[in-house]
Amino acid sequence: MLPTPEPTPERPERPEEARRTPAPLPAEEALASARRTATYREIAAQAETLPETWRRLAARGPVRAGEAWTLFTGCGSSFYLAEYAAALATGAARRPALAWPASRLWLAPGELEPWQERLGPPLVVGISRSGETTELLRALETARRRGLRTLALTCRPGAPVREVASEIVGLPHVREASVVMTHSFSNLALALAWLVLGGLAGGAPGAGAALAGLARLVQEAPARVAEGERRAAAWAAGRPRHFVFLGAGALFAVAREAALKVEETSQLPAEAYPPLELRHGPQAAVGEGSLVLLLGAAGREEEALLEEQRRLGARAERLGSPPQDEGGGAPWWSAHAALPALQFLALFRAVQEGRDPDRPRHLTQAVRLAARPPAGEEGKDHAG
Ligand code: F1P
Fold it and tell me: Residue 2's pLDDT is what?
């Protein structure tokens, strides 16, 4: 008979934490306050930084990969970028690809072996805004120790990541003071689409058209930012308290990032699923105060799902995409076109809740882990 485990004592909220739960702000005051934050300026900056990124990438020339497949890796929002890139590689460039959080490649690299036995060695692409996240550095070190070629995509090409990358794609013009990733995410996503559709898929059918489509999308960036702010302000006016983001394929990664942005900035509950998964349990949480947003194109099944959520009391909408998507263009267009609206939504709700989006609770711009002695050698002197 197993002993009954002691219940984990609820950690009493310290009095100062209770005082820290700020009072919500009225709508207009909140939007005006949001527009004074670094996070707002950085979301809006993508209207200028995306065209600059595109110009630099075009001048750089494509990255060719001799490897048959690619492992994308990163942490936090950068892990969702890895998931976006892997879905784009397999879906749009027809190249096998995987996305792992950097901690998995660092701590369980043996799980790569079944893939390598069948597909050969992958190109390992490490994604990092800061270029100094410990897990990412350890993951690329591990890959190199196993004889794999590593490419780093970063906004800080001079950061420690340069020591563990065989090749660097740098976006030094994309700078962010705020903790959460906003225009850095949008620019790194554009660079990954360029890497996958232009370089890694070099010569694949449709790659040229896809790159031309990306170039058009970049030209539309200012309009996407303006439209995104309008849509986000309209959603925020309803003060949703529960968020469900739905996306298929590469858009699922963007849905996961949208949920993370809301949680990081406002600490409101936010979830992400492939669209039809919602009925298989999560819709139990949908009701009045829920905002359900479907990214990308919607067929009859997705429209029926949205209508069901409205009957449950939610506000349910499709986050449309440029005409290319309507005209049967690449569905991943929506990924790039949707980002400003999703980022502004998180920002506006955070400020309405009286939070400071530039200094989100418990978070830092980069996670740097203390060095620990090797397992089994704890307590021994590691002076060196
Ligand atoms: C980025 C990241 C962010 C997260 C937080 C901690 O790491 O994980 O996604 O919002 O700011 O850092 P990186 O891209 O710099 O490696």
Answer: 41
